[in-house]
Amino acid sequence: MAVSALDLGREKQLLKFFPEPVRLHLLYTARHHGFKMSDLISKFDKVGRFVVIVYLESGTMKGGYLSERPESYFQEDKGAFVFEIDHQKANVFPVVKHRDSIIFNNQYNNENLAFGHCLKIYNNKDKTLCVDVKEDDTYTPTGWSEELEVPFMDVELHRIQSVGDVLLNPWRELSWTEKGGGSLRKNLVSFKPACQSLNRVRVLLMGPPGSGKSSFINSVRSVMFGRVLLLPFIGTATKGLIKKLKSYDIRSERGGKPTALTLCDVLALGEGETTGLTLTDALTVIKGHAPEGHKFQSDVPIKAETSGYRPNPSVNDQIHCAVFVLNACQVMTTSEDLTRTLRTLQAEISGLDIPQVVLLTHVAQVCHAVQEDVKFVYSSRILQEKMQKAAEVVGLPLSYVLPVKNYSSELSVSCNTDILLLSAVHHILQAVDDTYEEYCPPTPADASPVTV
Ligand SMILES: Nc1nc2c(ncn2[C@@H]2O[C@H](COP(=O)(O)OP(=O)(O)OP(=O)(O)O)[C@@H](O)[C@H]2O)c(=O)[nH]1
Ligand SMILES: [Mg+2]
What we know:
Layout: H1 8-15, E1 22-29, H2 30-33, H3 37-42, E2 49-56, E3 61-66, E4 74-75, E5 81-85, E6 90-94, E7 102-105, E8 112-115, E9 119-123, E10 129-133, E11 152-162, H4 178-190, E12 201-206, H5 213-225, E13 246-251, E14 258-265, H6 279-286, E15 321-327, H7 336-351, E16 356-361, H8 368-372, H9 381-394, E17 401-403, H10 415-439, H11 444-447
The protein binds guanosine-5'-triphosphate (GTP) and magnesium ion.
Magnesium ion binds near residues 214, 233, 241, 242 and 265.
């Protein structure tokens, strides 16, 4: 495991350079990951603020701060600074000439990262990591005398994380253990709806294009199969990939018995009644009139004449839980049109006495702590805000919002991602039981005498 060489005293000095309380998150150490520029560059996160530290053999620490991931050859960074810390002093030198604050090159064999000309990290002729220091007018005068290939012991890259990002105590409890995951899985496998007239629970996923409806289905199936499935119905199309009503039974394992859960995929919601899944069609699907495989057309609503139309759907043809799927990365900027569509749907579905929840996807994309480990979902302040917004957009209470991380780029399943997905499924099934237990008429089976 990579461990930082930073001792507490020098870490405190370094953290004082930041006006707000921050903490460091180690991404790279040369000693652990390799003395090559490509190793260092590959460890930058996609977003964030970063600090590079060089531990010189003299005992001094020199380094630089970037308020953004380096991307371009000359990167303007008004917040950049270089610094030096040793046992007597800690000095910070803010950038003066913003335009040249960061010089970056990640071309193969020519990789380098430099803070003006004050501190340059690059590969030497032997393709090993190497550091030059000197004084340069890009930053406030450092008084550093020029030293090429200065002897050093280690180079580290850290991400700067605001302390306020992670709450000390999670605001919802979840057992992040294999045992906890195992019992959630068992619950799903053995689940039988409390209402005996229900054979199975049909859950409809509705949301804008690309929100992760199909990925959720794929992810739940992946959890049950124990490996990430690669299926063709997941896309990156902005206009919506899935056009049909398609129901997926969730099996307990590959080739195993179906659980009582069926997840239904539909055309993405549009903004208003003219594109995407219309309000009329959504309600027709929910009431169970729409046939499996129905191909949606925004301008041709489903009606009695539609091929396969069910005029008298049974309780088992209906949808038993409506799930609004929203992307955590986009929820803050939900358009007025989409908000109106979601709220109208929510109000209409409430009128049908059908439980509703919000599934918030892409949770690892909005918070570093969650990206590191999804077990931080309920400790992440950023995510809490996104969940509050998701609740507001749809018009449901926060307790109805379920965060998930769908499998997207991973090739194998992971315990905590599974737990979060299974927990969402658990809440959906719970919501169905809570609702249907209330008003489901007793079936003949209820009245039959108990046989021992
Ligand atoms: N990182 C990440 N990516 C996700 C997540 N959910 C979905 N994606 C990605 O987002 C893209 C769209 O996902 P889909 O599942 O196809 O979205 P959809 O809602 O079914 O979209 P349409 O069928 O087009 O309406 C895909 O590239 C997925 O891999 C998630 O939780 N995290
Ligand atoms: Mg889809």
